[in-house]
Specification:
Elements: H1 21-40, H2 43-48, H3 53-81
Helix pairs in contact: 1-3
Length: 95
């Protein structure tokens, strides 16, 4: 009996995940929050130099990081349940 051969047209398997997404996004989100809090102490200086964009950039970075983490953990939960269409790569990560 012959063994089935791999499809030569199939793409190679994905490499293992070395750096977890949560290991990058959590510290990044925390840094945006720290930057926002630090800039809160300098609001008068920011207004004087017309540089309030820095405060709002830090706030936007923090909020987008929180949204990204929520989506990541939502996908992870869906993959654990075996929901069709969920990404199973999140299950390969170790915290």
């Amino acid at each position: 009996m012959t063994e089935p051969t791999a499809d030569p047209e199939a793409p190679p398997p994905l490499p293992p995940v070395n750096a977890g997404l949560a290991h990058v996004v959590v510290p990044g989100t925390a840094l945006w929050f720290v930057g926002f809090v630090v800039l809160l102490f300098f609001i008068s200086d920011l207004r004087a130099h017309d540089a309030m964009i820095w405060l709002w950039t830090c706030l936007a970075g923090w909020v987008l990081g929180l949204i990204g983490l929520a989506i990541y953990f939502w996908q992870r939960r869906a993959a654990r349940r075996g929901t069709r269409g969920s990404s199973s790569m999140a299950l390969d990560e170790q915290f």
